[in-house]
Design goal:
By secondary structure, the protein is of the alpha+beta class. Helices cover 33% and strands 17% of the residues. Strands 7-6-12-11-10 form a five-stranded antiparallel beta sheet, sandwiched between helices.
Length: 775
C-alpha cells in the first residue's frame, strides 16, 4: 500500500474517532432539560413546626412532590437501590445479566423476575413506553442509554425517586412519605424506607388493591416483600439488626383521603402567591394557636346564631417577628351558606372606632394633648360635619384617656381637627393601608370609620404601637421579614397610647384585664361590622364579627359582640400556656410623670385641690397653668363678690366652666357651684383669664368650601357671667349673641378672614379661616 493511501486511512480513522468522541461527549456538554420538567407537581404547605397543612394534587390529579436528592433520607435511597438496582452506579443504563435472567425466567415459565434497571424504568415513565413487547423493550433500552448519555447518575436517581409510582394516585417518595406516613422525605425511618422501596414492583397489589376485600392480602404481600428486603439490608448492615422490632410494628399506610387541610384560608392565599415551581411552602402558622382560634370562633358563632350572627374572622400576629401565627377567614371554610371560602381577614370593611387610638397618638406627638388633657364632649359642628356619640349623649369635660376608653366621638374628632402633619389619613397611607380615596373624600369622618381597612391592615397598625411606632410588614412564610420602615409614631406616643388602652375594662368583669390587654372596639355605620383589636403578651389580635353579605344587624356592636369573642380567644391562649407573657416594655427615654390638676388637665395653680399624675413628653406635651380655678372675695352677708377684703368677707375658690359645660352638668344631675355675679370693679387675675371667651369652632387655619348661601357655624366657650358677645369678621361687625349661643356667619366672598369675639368685660379671642366658594 502506498504511503498516501496509508495516510488517508489514518486521517479517516482520526475523523471517525473524533466524531465518535463528540457523539459521546456532546450530550453531556449541551444543556439538557430538567428530568422533572415533563411532569407537573403538587405543592406542600407546612406549619412552622413541620406539620403538614395541605398537599395539593398535581395538574394530572396525582400526588407528586419534587424533592432534591440530598433531601431524601439516605436509608430510602439505599433501600431502593438495594431492592431495584444494586449495580445502578456501575452499569451504562442497561444490566445485560439482569435482562438475560429475566428473559430466561419468562422463557421457562418460572416466576417472573424484573430485568429493568432504574434508568430503564425512568425511561419507560418519561416516554410512556409499553415494554411488554420486544419492540417496546428495545425502545426502552435505547431510551435508557440516551438518558445515561445526557444525565448524571444522581440526576437519574433523583428523577426516579420523584416520579416512581407508589400506589393509588401517589408518585415519588416525597408525596408518598406525606400521604402514607405523614413525614417528609428527609424524615423517613428505616422501616418506612424499606416499605416504600418494595412498592414500585407491584404498587396496585401492595398498596391499592383493585378489588374490595383484598386489603389483608395487600398488607400481607407488602409485609412479605419488606421482610425479604430486610434480610438483604441486614446482610449488608449487620449493626442494624437491633432495629428489627421496628418492622414488627403494625403496618398501616394512610390513604390520600386522610390528608389534612388545615388553616384553609391561609393555605389558599399562600398557594396563590407561590413563586414559580415552588413545591414546599413553610408558613409561620403555629398549629396549636390556629386550632385554638378556630375552635373559639366556631363555638362563639354557634351560640350567637339566634341573634343573626353567622360569621367571624380573626388574625393573630407575633409582634416580635410580625409572623402570622393564626388566620381564620370565616367561621367555617366548608359552609357554602355563609360563603365560607371568602377570607374575611383580607376584606375591606369600615373599622368604626378602632382608628381613634392613632388620632390620640398623633395628638401626643404633635403636643396637643397628654392622657389627662381635658376635652369637651359637647355638641360641636366642624364645618358641615356635626358628629354625635354612639349613645346619643354628651358628657361634658372628659380626659383624653377616658375619651379613648369610652370611645367618645366628639373629642376624637376635635383632636383630629387640630392635627397638623401628619394627619390621620397620611398616617394610614404611610402605614400601608391601601385603596384609600383622596383625603378630602373623607374629611373628619375618617376618624369614626369613614374609610375601609382590612383586618390585616388593622392588626398591623396595632402591632406598630407594640413596636414603638415602627410599621413592619406581616409575613406568612419563614422567609426573612423585611426591615422596619421609617418610624411613624414616636416611641413615647406609642408607649402612652398602649398604656391608655390597657385601662379599657373587660366586657365581662368591668375591670381592666390582668394580665394586661390593650384593646379597642369598633362598630361600622349601619351595624354591618363589629371589631375588637388589641395587644396582649407578644401578640396582636384582631377579631371581626358580621356577615359577608353586608347586611346590617343591631346586634353587631363591637363592645357587645366582638369584644367577648376577642377575650374568649385571649383567655383560651393564656389558659393553655401558649402566651409567653408580656414583652419587656422599657420606658422610652423621653417620657416622664408630672402632676396636673385633675379637673382641667393643666399644671395645677395655687387654687387646684384635686391633683393627679400623668405621662408627659417633655418638649412636646402642652404646658400651661390651669385657668379653671379662681379665688373670689365674697361678702358673707349678701353672697356677692366684692372688690376688697373686709370684716364680713372670705375668699372662695370657684371653677369657671363655660356655659355649655355648665348646662351639660345640670342635665346630668351634677350641677356645679357657679361664681357669684361680676361686680362693677370688674374681673381680674385668674378669674378674668378663666372666664374669657374662646372660639372652639372653626379650627385654626380651617378651609371651608361652600356656596355663598351656606352659613358657617361658629362655637365658643363662655361663662354664664358673660352677658353679651360681639362678633367681627376682619373689621366688620357681624352681630351680637348671649353666652352659650352659637353664631351663624354668612361669608360675603371667598378669601381669608380673621374672626373675632369680644365679651362685655373686655375678654377676646380670634381665629383665622379661609373660604372657597363653589357655584
Amino acid at each position: 500500500m502506498s504511503r498516501p493511501a496509508r495516510r488517508g486511512r489514518w486521517r479517516l480513522a482520526l475523523v471517525v474517532g473524533a466524531l465518535s468522541i463528540a457523539a459521546l461527549v456532546a450530550p453531556r456538554i449541551v444543556p439538557a432539560p430538567s428530568l422533572g420538567g415533563r411532569a407537573t407537581f403538587s405543592s406542600a404547605v407546612f406549619a412552622e413546626n413541620g406539620e403538614l397543612l395541605r398537599l395539593t394534587l398535581a395538574a394530572d390529579q396525582q400526588y407528586r412532590l419534587w424533592v432534591p436528592l440530598d433531601q431524601i433520607a439516605p436509608a430510602t435511597r439505599e433501600a431502593v437501590l438495594l431492592y431495584e438496582d444494586r449495580w445502578f452506579f456501575w452499569h451504562p443504563g442497561v444490566n445485560p445479566y439482569a435482562l438475560a435472567r429475566s428473559a430466561g425466567a419468562s422463557w421457562f415459565g418460572r416466576r417472573r423476575q424484573g430485568g429493568s434497571t432504574i434508568t430503564m424504568q425512568l425511561a419507560r415513565r418519561l416516554d410512556g413506553i409499553d415494554s411488554r413487547t420486544v419492540g417496546g423493550k428495545l425502545w426502552q433500552i435505547g431510551a435508557a442509554a440516551w438518558l445515561e448519555l445526557r444525565y448524571g447518575k444522581r440526576e437519574i436517581l433523583e428523577a426516579y425517586l420523584n416520579l416512581v409510582p407508589l400506589g393509588r394516585n401517589v408518585e415519588g417518595v416525597g408525596a408518598a412519605g406525606l400521604v402514607y406516613f405523614g413525614k417528609r422525605a428527609a424524615e423517613l425511618g428505616l422501616a418506612e424506607s424499606l416499605t416504600l422501596a418494595v412498592v414500585p414492583q407491584n404498587p396496585h397489589r401492595r398498596v391499592s388493591p383493585a378489588r374490595e376485600g383484598t386489603a389483608r392480602e395487600a398488607e400481607r404481600e407488602l409485609v412479605d416483600a419488606r421482610e425479604r428486603l430486610w434480610r438483604r439490608w441486614v446482610s449488608r448492615h449487620p449493626r442494624d439488626r437491633h432495629r428489627e422490632a421496628d418492622l414488627a410494628l403494625p403496618l398501616a399506610p394512610a390513604s390520600p383521603t386522610a390528608l389534612p387541610f388545615r388553616a384553609p384560608h391561609l393555605v389558599e392565599a399562600l398557594l396563590r402567591t407561590r413563586r414559580g415551581a415552588e413545591t414546599e411552602i413553610w408558613s409561620t402558622i403555629d398549629p396549636r394557636l390556629q386550632s385554638t382560634v378556630e375552635r373559639m370562633i366556631a363555638r362563639y358563632v354557634e351560640t350567637q346564631r339566634p341573634l343573626g350572627i353567622r360569621n367571624a374572622a380573626a388574625l393573630l400576629v407575633d409582634t416580635r417577628t410580625m409572623a402570622v401565627k393564626a388566620l381564620v377567614g370565616s367561621a367555617d371554610y366548608f359552609d357554602d351558606e355563609i360563603d365560607g371560602q371568602v377570607n374575611g381577614v383580607f376584606a375591606k370593611r369600615s373599622p368604626g372606632s378602632t382608628l381613634k387610638p392613632f388620632v390620640y397618638a398623633l395628638g401626643l406627638d404633635q403636643g396637643l394633648v397628654h392622657p389627662l388633657t381635658i376635652l369637651r364632649d359637647v355638641p360641636t359642628a366642624f364645618g358641615p360635619f356635626s358628629p354625635e356619640n354612639f349613645d346619643g349623649r354628651f358628657v361634658g369635660p372628659i380626659s383624653v384617656q377616658d375619651a379613648l376608653v369610652r370611645s367618645r366621638n366628639v373629642p376624637a374628632v376635635a383632636v383630629a381637627a387640630r392635627l397638623s402633619r401628619p394627619s390621620l389619613y397620611e398616617l394610614l397611607k404611610s402605614a400601608g393601608v391601601t385603596k384609600l380615596a383622596p383625603e378630602r373624600h373623607y374629611g373628619l369622618a375618617l376618624v369614626l370609620g369613614g374609610g375601609d381597612v382590612t383586618g390585616e391592615e388593622l392588626v398591623r397598625l396595632y402591632a406598630m404601637l407594640a413596636n414603638g411606632g415602627e410599621p413592619r410588614a406581616l409575613h406568612y412564610t419563614r422567609d426573612p421579614a423585611p426591615p422596619p420602615t421609617t418610624r411613624l409614631i414616636s416611641a413615647e406616643a406609642a408607649f402612652i397610647t398602649l398604656d391608655m388602652l390597657r385601662a379599657n375594662p373587660r366586657p365581662d368583669t368591668g375591670r381592666p384585664a390582668a394580665p394586661a390587654v390593650a384593646w379597642k372596639t369598633g362598630t361600622s355605620w349601619g351595624f354591618r361590622d363589629a371589631w375588637s383589636v388589641g395587644v396582649f403578651g407578644p401578640y396582636a389580635l384582631v377579631v371581626w364579627v358580621g356577615n359577608f353579605d353586608g347586611a346590617g344587624n343591631p346586634a353587631l356592636v363591637g363592645v357587645k359582640i366582638a369584644a367577648p369573642l376577642f377575650f374568649n380567644v385571649v383567655d383560651a391562649i393564656r389558659g393553655q400556656g401558649l402566651d409567653p407573657g408580656e414583652r419587656p416594655r422599657p420606658l422610652p427615654p423621653h417620657v416622664a410623670r408630672v402632676e396636673v390638676c385633675r379637673a382641667s388637665g393643666d399644671l395645677p395653680n395655687a387654687h387646684c385641690r384635686e391633683r393627679a399624675t400623668t405621662w408627659f413628653i417633655p418638649g412636646k406635651s402642652p404646658i400651661r397653668v390651669s385657668r379653671l380655678h379662681g379665688a373670689v372675695i365674697v361678702d358673707t352677708r349678701s353672697g356677692r363678690a366684692v372688690c376688697e377684703d373686709g370684716p364680713f368677707t372670705r375668699r372662695e375658690v370657684f371653677e369657671y366652666w363655660p356655659a355649655d359645660m355648665l348646662r351639660l352638668f345640670r342635665e346630668a344631675g351634677l350641677p356645679r357651684q357657679e361664681p357669684p355675679p361680676a361686680m362693677p370693679c370688674g374681673r381680674g387675675g385668674a378669674a378674668a383669664a378663666a372666664s374669657a371667651p374662646r372660639i372652639t369652632s372653626p379650627s385654626r387655619g380651617a378651609v371651608y368650601t361652600i356656596r355663598l348661601s351656606q352659613p358657617i357655624a361658629i362655637d365658643l366657650q363662655a361663662t354664664d357671667s358673660t352677658r353679651a358677645l360681639f362678633w367681627f369678621a376682619d373689621q366688620g361687625f357681624l352681630g351680637r349673641t348671649g353666652a352659650g349661643e352659637s353664631f351663624a356667619w354668612h361669608p360675603s366672598r371667598a378669601g381669608r378672614y380673621t374672626l373675632r369675639v369680644l365679651d362685655d368685660a373686655g375678654g377676646a379671642d380670634a381665629r383665622d379661616v379661609s373660604v372657597e366658594v363653589v357655584p
